[in-house]
Amino acid sequence: MSRPSAIAIQQSPFVVLVFSIMVEHIENFVSEIAKSIQNGTFVKLSLANYKGSEPHLQKILIRLVETKKGVRLYFLYRSETRDVAKNYDFDLGLGLIATAFDDGFRNGHLFTTAGDLQLDISNKGKTRLNRAKPAFRLTPPLGHDREKAALVDANSFYLKALGITDDTGRIKDKQQDKWRQINKFVEVMASLYNRSELREKRSLSIVDMGCGKGYLTFAAFDYFRNTLGLEAVVTGIDVKSELVDLCNGIARACDFDGLSFVVGRIDDFVVGDTDMLIALHACNTATDEALFKGIKANAGLILAAPCCHQEIRPQITPPAMLKDVLKHGVMLERFAEFITDGLRSLLLERSGYSTKLFEFVSTEHTPKNNMLAATRLGRPRPPEEFQRQIVEIKEQFGIDQHRLETLLGPPD
Ligand SMILES: C[S@@+](CC[C@H](N)C(=O)[O-])C[C@H]1O[C@@H](n2cnc3c(N)ncnc32)[C@H](O)[C@@H]1O
């Protein structure tokens, strides 16, 4: 909504009145925002009902964020095709909010713990300023604590682009399981990260091997870069070029500078310095290849969700005691899975990591639900005690080859 020209104002006392009320309402609205920031009641602000000239712009979502330079106003410019995030100091941010109404926004909604305030501007320039009871009783935490409030923002553009949410930010019915998995993954990753040595770093290099459509790669980048405000560089690798192209397109549309996808095989990929290695549901021994890359890169954290355990099953020769138990295909399959991941965990521990093996989403939502999480130890336990167990297990069940063991070679 453009303000009326000076000539129009001179010609019509009605327009003069409408204009002066509008200016007063906008000034009041902006001063309420400034006041709420000052007295610590500010929760969030949205600018919507956009009628301006930017082709795809829809709304601006504004909240406070803690950055290295102090608390700033975080603007998320949401358009039909992308999200762009910017941080501004208070003076500049408040100035931009004031001019946003000149530039085409017809609605502003301020949420504070003291009360909510809504500014509406009609097509004819009439303004209304409505007050309401506060929708929020608490202000959201800033910076690192914020992760508890919202680990994954359902309104993120990448979720819409990947088909998880619809235009209104609602999780599509068929995507509920994927959504649960993304959230659980970020929750687990955040918790392990917070208890690892990586927490001390301002910049993080992360590789996601066998990233597929990149759901978890995007979520990891968004968490470290946008929620925690770290210098995160995240690379997804997959053999499927069509998925890599799709993900690179979405990363560009989101302005996720630092997130990229590369076509390649896990075993060929040169990881370099990597702080965190992710490999979820990489098929069969691709998981071993990814774990090996993580160990060789001395990654502080390695997260894997193994699937399709095909290598060990044909090698298993059950001891006499279990002969008639493991003659059943389903039992042998589960047993092979148990031995494969058990050996992976021991090999990681032998390589200087502490490990956790756990169910990370319920089997009701996906059958591929075990996670193997490894954290590099400052003072690892001697490899011999793990090696002894590895040798015994292999001997007991007639196992000749385990891909991760072959890749690692004998212990130092
Ligand atoms: C089941 S999807 C999992 C995708 C993603 N990690 C997730 O959990 O949502 C497995 C992906 O790994 C890729 N993949 C399998 N073996 C691979 C290899 N050796 N090198 C690179 N990518 C591989 C496949 O192309 C596929 O996209």
Task: Give an account of the 3D structure.
The chain is an alpha/beta fold. The protein folds into two domains: 6-132, no CATH class; 143-408, Rossmann fold (3-Layer(aba) Sandwich), CATH 3.40.50.150. 37% of the residues lie in helices and 25% in strands. The chain contains twelve helices and 14 strands. The strands form two sheets. Strands 4-3-2-1-5-6-7 form a seven-stranded antiparallel beta sheet, covered by helices on one side. A seven-stranded mixed beta sheet has the order 10-9-8-11-12-14-13, sandwiched between helices. A hairpin with a 6-residue loop joins strand 1 (42-50) and strand 2 (57-67). It is elongated. Mean pLDDT is 88; it is low at 1-9 and 144-149.
Residue ranges: pLDDT <50 for 5 or more in a row? 1-9, 144-149
Please give the alpha-carbon distance between the first and last residues: 71 Å
Strand content: 25-35%
Shape: elongated
| Total count of helical runs of at least 4 residues | 12
As laid out across the biggest beta sheet, the strand order is 4-3-2-1-5-6-7
Predict the CATH topology of the largest domain. Rossmann fold
Could you give a short account of the major beta sheet?
A: 7 strands, antiparallel
What helical percentage do the residues reach?
A: 25-40%
Structural class: alpha/beta
